Amino acid sequence: MNNTKIINEISKINEIKSMDLTQLMGDDHRNIMDHFARFFLLANNNNEEALHVLDSLCWELERHLLIEEKEVFLSYPIKGVKDQEMVDRLFKDHREILHMIESIKSKISQNIHVDCSELKTLWIDHEAFERDIFYPTLDTTLSDESKMGIYQKVNTLIEDRSKS
Ligand SMILES: [Fe+2]
Ligand SMILES: [Fe+2]
Dihedral sign, CA of 143, 155, 33, 94? Predict the structure, then answer.
């Protein structure tokens, strides 16, 4: 192998190494966390502003969940019942999170006092599970080729979000 080929190989390896889904999706989680934090502070205190923040939270969150459901979860290499249960649980969490938000939104619109504790707990648990277990496992088990494919697709979708 000549020098140029070796350099190309090394840069390809480094490129794949830098494609870290844990980092990429963790950054997106932090963005959503910020919206959640603002919303939780406003709920029951300033409903008009809370609804406003909830709108942008929903926009960011729904996009994130859709990216995970369409581009990430189904790529997880299922090796047994435990893996399937884990992926099913993530889908179920998403449905519950969106359902809770809808119910809170409807109450706030009617100026009814809301309890956000269940939603807060579910989101924090879900985020921690993805950040500490799901994505690190995905990063280490996917083949370089599939990881590169998923990373590039997801990264493009996330970048498109920041443009809109
Ligand atoms: Fe998720
Ligand atoms: Fe996520």
Answer: negative
Considering its fold, how many domains does the chain have in total? 1
Residue 65 Cα to ligand 2 midpoint, Å, equals 6
Is 136 a member of any domain?
yes
Ligand nearest the Cα of residue 87 is 1
**CB-CB contact of 29 with 126 (8 Å):** no
Full pLDDT tens readout for the chain, 164 residues: 678 888 777 776 666 667 899 999 999 999 999 999 999 999 999 999 999 999 999 999 999 999 999 999 999 999 999 999 999 999 999 999 999 999 999 999 999 999 999 999 999 999 999 999 999 999 999 998 899 999 999 999 888 776 66
The total number of residues written for the chain in this structure: 164
Q: How far is the CA of 121 from the centre of ligand 1 (A)?
A: 14
pTM of the predicted protein model:
0.88
User: Could you tell me the distance, in angstroms and rounded to a whole number, from the CA of residue 67 to the centre of ligand 2?
Assistant: 9
Residue 4 included in any domain = no
Look up the domain containing 150 and give its range.
21-163
